[in-house]
Every structure is written in C-alpha cells, then in structure tokens.
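User: I've been going back and forth on whether these two constructs are worth ordering. Before I decide, could you fold them both?

Assistant: Sure. I'll take them in the order you sent them. The first construct and its structure tokens:
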Amino acid sequence: MNSSSNPKLPLCLEMRRRRQALNLLQADVAERLHVSPECITLWEGGLRRMELAKLPRIAAVLKMDARELCTKALAEFYPNVYEAIFGASTQLHQKSA
C-alpha cells in the first residue's frame, strides 16, 4: 500500500493522520468498515482497541501496509505476544530507546 508506519507514533494517532491525509471523514471510514462513527472516534482517541481481525480492512481503507499495521497493533496491544513472536530486539519494540 502507500503508507509506511511511523514506529514512534502511537497507532491511534497514525490512523487519524492517515485518514485526514486521505481527506476522509470518520463517518466515511466507519461506513466502509461497517462500524459506527463513534467507534472510529474511540479508536483514534486511543480509548478503544480495534479488533485485530479488522486490521487488514482498516489498512485497505486507509491505504496502509496491512503487515505493518498488524505488527504495530500487536506490539502496542499485546507486547508480550509481539516479543514472543518477533523478539525484544526488533525496531518497533525499541521505540523507547
């Protein structure tokens, strides 16, 4: 896809910025994902996690790389699972360094 993930930017802000860069309203994204606009507001505000199963569709709507989006979400939402799969020395996991 067109966009590359920024490892230092939280997923919720990256999604908001990408939506805005594409000139999409939250309602537009919500309609394409079959969720409520309030759901998008909560995701972008970091107040609710999206289901991991929705990430490939979110990536398609926001024209983001699905693998990068899924990896970033896994690192943020489930750091222990991320570390078990990818190890502690990967780039996403070093964002605090």
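The second construct, handled the same way:
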Amino acid sequence: MFAPRSSARHLALAALLIGASVVSGRAGADEFMRGYLEGLLDSRFPGLELSVRALDQQRVVVAAGTCLGDSQKRDVERVLAQSGEELSVSWDPVADCKRAPAPATEVEFHALPERELFAPLLADPRQPRFSLSYQRYNTPSETFSAASVALGEYFGFASGFLGQTGASQFGIQAGVFALFNLDADSMDLINADYWIGFPLSYRRGPYSYVLSLYHQSSHLGDEFILGSTGIGRVNLSYEGLELLLSHEWRRLRVYGGGGYILNSEPDLAPWSAHAGAEYVRPRAAGRLDFVLATDVRFSEELDWARSRSIQAGFELHGTTQRSVRLMLEYFRGHSPNGQFYNEKLRYVGLGLYFGF
C-alpha cells in the first residue's frame, strides 16, 4: 500500500536528476563556448586582453584590458559574427574610453602581433600592401594605359600593453611599387620605388599614432630608358620621418600629420603634410562592405601643391583576417612615382587590394 508514495518519490528524484543534467549540460556548453570565443579573440586581437565577461545563450558581454575605439569594436563584432554562432554582443564598461585611465601596474609584451595598431591608409598610393591596378594615365606629354603593382606588408615585432593608458607596437614595413606601360610592345617597366620603414605606433581607444623612420629609392626601368629620348635619370633616394595621428568612429576615420626629410639625393626641401579620411559601411551589400577613402599630400619641394587620391568600392572579408577590395581610383597632382615626382598627372583606374 506504500507503492504510490514510493513511485511519487522516484518520479520526483528522476525529475530532479534530469533537471540537474540539463542545467549541467547547459553550463558545460556555455563554458565550452566561452573558452572557444576567448581563444578566438586572443588569437585575432593579441594585446587587447579581450575576455568574455558573461555569456547567456546568444548574448555575450566582452571586456577588454584597455579602452577600445568604435572601429576596433566593429572588427571584434565582425569576428564574433563569423564564429558560427548568432551572438548579440555588448561591451563591459571597462572598454569605455570615457572612464578615467587605470594606473598601469605592469607592462606586458606580445611577440609577433598580427594586427597593426595604426590601421593602413586605404587611399595612399604609397601604402605598403599587395595590390594590382589598371590605370589610364594622362600626363602633359602623353596618354597611356598603365599597370601599377605593389608588393609589400607590415610585420609586427612586439606589442606592449600598458593597461588603460594604451598599447604600443614596433614593427617593420617594406614595399616595392612598380609602374608598367601597357601600351608598349613589351609592357615596359617605367619606374620602381623601393620603400622600407620602421613604424612605432601607439593606440588608446579611437586615437592612434604612428612615427615612421623610412627610406625610399627610385629606379627607372631599362626598357623605358632604352626606348625613350631626352629622359634624364635622377638618382632619387631619401630618408625621412613621418608622424600621423588618426581618430576613428564606427564608420568614419580621419588622419593627419607631417613629415621631414632627413637626408636626400638630390637635395630636396624637407617639409611635407599628409591627411585623409575613410568611410566604411559594413555589409552595405550582403557580405560586402562599402569603402570610400581619400588621401591628400602637400610638400615644400613642390611649393605645397596638392596631390589627392580618391578610391571607392567594396571589400569582402573572409572568416580569417584575409580580405580583398575592388576599388575605383582617381588621382590628380604630382606623380607618386619617385623618378617623376615633379611632373603633374591625372589617372583613373580599377584596382584589387589584398589584406592578410
């Protein structure tokens, strides 16, 4: 006669065990997902000390060891969106730059960081990168089709973490910029510029700075020299310093600064100014981001005449850091090609830009 009461107890115990198993399973899944997300953030954004402060089903709260700018948050949210989980991301107040900086109690160094603290300049014709462009050149003496090829990259040596006071980074940049005349019988190499620099960068939230010590030398192509008359080769070579400041919002970035030539052959007036703006609208067309950028340079050597570059197009990001941009290009001013720095030109083109 005690069977009904015993059965009820057994049912209650079974329900309790099942409930505990479900809760334990959910907690285990959450811990697994937390570990996966933190590993992903640590590998993609070393030096920012990103962590998952809370995880509740599809909502994740992310904390950072330093305050972040809007564009940095956008990049982090993009990576989390590509993790395979539909996550709603919110930010812990520690990532808010409006808070007073906490005193730095220790300095940490991260070897071989993958991401630059000072983001590359999208419309700068002399930004080290991998790119290929078709351009239609208009110069005072001729009009021709050209191919502009750039081979270059940034390599970070070390990134220093300074608490909410910011982060610093030191690395190397190198690039080769070549221009070919597509209308010539053998697609002559017209000019090749070799550039190497050592940038020291710093970032706190939306503000980033870079100080670069660099060298550039310029060389005419053999076929171009043999097929041209009245062309005097200039042994253009110089070393200089450039300091740039950048401020970023969610979709907009502006930057500006100046440079000084330390040594040059031939002797060049030393001062220059450099500024620009970039606009990015994420997922403007499916997975494609819309990108609009402009870059402007002035130099004392050219009587402070303006040279401007404008680009507009779309960028596709992969599930890793790789990306590709297809951009319409317009340039007007003095030639960015070293040997012809004092000649005015105008070109329009279409370029592919690869990010790694």
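Notes on the second construct follow. The chain has two domains: 3-95, 110-355. The longest strand covers residues 143-161.
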